[in-house]
Design goal:
homodimer; Arc Repressor Mutant, subunit A; about 110 residues; elongated; DNA-binding; alpha+beta
Amino acid sequence: MEKTDAVTALAALAQDNRLDVFRLLVRSGPEGLTAGAIADALDLAPNTLTFHFDRLRMAGLATVRREGRSMIYAARFETMNSLVGFLTENCCGGVSCAPASSSKPARKRNKAPA
Amino acid sequence: MEKTDAVTALAALAQDNRLDVFRLLVRSGPEGLTAGAIADALDLAPNTLTFHFDRLRMAGLATVRREGRSMIYAARFETMNSLVGFLTENCCGGVSCAPASSSKPARKRNKAPA
DNA sequence: CCGTTGTTTCAATAATCGTTGAAATATGGA
DNA sequence: TCCATATTTCAACGATTATTGAAACAACGG
């Protein structure tokens, strides 16, 4: 993932309601949810929601398809995966998120402590 | 990591110059870099940089210490690690970033109070 | 002390953001 | 066809953002 795309994706997730939307989409899996269902679940106005959907879609974090009268939004896991990859690679030491090693890119296992 | 902190951290990283700053700090390891060195490396005005440092510090992504006339900034890997953990846990399927298991019954759709 | 260097503070500015209400569009059913 | 439902578009609005220039503050050397 390019830096530009990472910034866009980070910005898309860096907002309360939008992060809620995305988390809900993730929990709903590939089938997704109708805009209305999301509006109800998160108690957001439909036009506000459209605004946030657009941001998520532009960031490649969501897809949309029509089904009858409803628009069904779903998470794009691939992009999220790339983002986590970018962060791990560029914003952590490299392997997990340890301080950058002085020299050796040792191929060690590093379990993340929750 | 709490959702609120995650949003703050995401917002801190969701900006071109700031992401550059943080990446540079990560590459510099725990020793950090002086504000001036960062300003030179990224060609940013010192006051602009102070603004971005503040954001990173508020998000827990950077620390600062004085050394003589210089302020030395360093990445806080622990926070970054927590953020990646939050994303993996909440915005991915759970383990990596695979689709979540589906089949959650839809929520009822009811609004319009009398 | 004074001047220099390194950084921050402050006020101002244009640009972008998140939300709202009203109106428009699209689909399906009677 | 007309109507109801589901969602989007549009024009506003106040709030926040990133950047700038000028001034202030802090630490050191002479």
